[in-house]
Amino acid sequence: MSGFFGKWIGGPQMQQKVKTKKAGASCDEDDLLAQCALFDVHRLGRILTGLYNARMKDVPMSISQYTLVTNIAALQPARVTEVAAAMLMDRTSVTRLIEPLISRGFLRMEQDEEDRRARILTVTSKGRVALEKSGRAWREAQQEFFSVIGAEKWMLLRKTLRETIHLVRDRQDGEIAAPE
User: What is the pLDDT of residue 96?
Assistant: First the structure.
C-alpha cells in the first residue's frame, strides 16, 4: 500500500502485539486494549488527523481549524456555546481554537446584542477565502481515505459512528455525558 496510509495501515507496528510493562505480558484479542471502546477510535482518529494535516500542510488552516470554521460558517452568527455544543467540545477549548483564527482575520468575534455575556462568531471574507483553499485540500484527503476503505464501508462506519454518538450523548442517567 502506498501513500499516506501505506505507512500506517498494516505496518509492522500495527501487527505486533502490544507489550505491557508488567512482567512482559502481551495483550491479545481477549485483553483490555482489544476490548477498549476508546483505543481503536483514538488510533483511527490519530491516523485520520495525520492524513488530513499532511494534505492540508500548505493551506491556511489545519484540519481542526477547518472543521471549526466550517461549523461556525454553518451556524453563523454563532455563539461560542453553540459551536461548542455542535462539536461536542467545551467552551474553553473552542475559545482556545478560535483565538489564532481571530488574530489571522479569519473570524470576527463581537458581543451579542441580546445577551451581553455571550460572544457571536462570524467568518470574515478573508476566512471564506481560507476556507475555500483549505477545503480543496480537505477534499483530497477525503478522497484518499475513501479510496482506501471504499464508499460502502465508509457509509456503514459513518452511520455506526453517528448512531453511537446519539446513543451515548442522549443518555439521561448521566453515566456518560458529553463535555460541558
Answer: 94
Residue with cell 479569519: 106
* Domain spans, the chain: 42-169
**Which pTM does this prediction carry?**
0.73
Dist CA 88 CA 140 (whole Å): 26
Predicted pLDDT at 117 = 86
* Nearest alpha carbon to residue 56 among 71, 44, 67: 67
* pLDDT in the model for residue 168: 84
- Provide the CATH number for the domain formed by 42-169 in this structure: 1.10.10.10
Q: Please give the pLDDT value at position 114.
A: 85
- CA nearest 104: which of 73, 72, 127, 86? 127
